[in-house]
């Protein structure tokens, strides 16, 4: 089953954005075979209005990504990470190129999925 992954990147080449300050997120669809395709780029408007709190910005950003099942950023604060986890979004941090980070994340997920499958087989 394919899933959507949001990557915090300033240019689509590097994973170089902190979740709370990311100006844009690159949204990828990742297939079961580990192939990925860029679907869209979402601008994250983070301008605070007079009297607006950081939590308001965080809520907008989380809401903007609610159709994604995973988020990949350079860094993320504990509050933002908790908010994403509460709505079922897995959070990963990495640095380097988007291509390398996606490859590592997909390999990690496949390894984890295979281990869970083997654990179920051994329990039977």
Automatic annotation (TrEMBL):
Query: Gene3D superfamilies in the record, alphabetically?
Result: Dinitrogenase iron-molybdenum cofactor biosynthesis domain
Where do the Dinitrogenase iron-molybdenum cofactor biosynthesis domain residues begin and end?
11-106
Instruction: Please give the superkingdom of this protein's source.
Output: Bacteria
Which Pfam families does the entry link to?
A: Nitro_FeMo-Co
Coiled coil regions, renumbered to chain: none
Q: Which InterPro entries match?
A: Di-Nase_FeMo-co_biosynth, DiNase_FeMo-co_biosyn_sf, NifX/NifY_domain
Q: Which PANTHER family does this one have?
A: DINITROGENASE IRON-MOLYBDENUM COFACTOR BIOSYNTHESIS DOMAIN-CONTAINING PROTEIN, IRON-MOLYBDENUM PROTEIN-RELATED-RELATED
Its protein name is Dinitrogenase iron-molybdenum cofactor biosynthesis domain-containing protein
Species source reads Paenibacillus apii
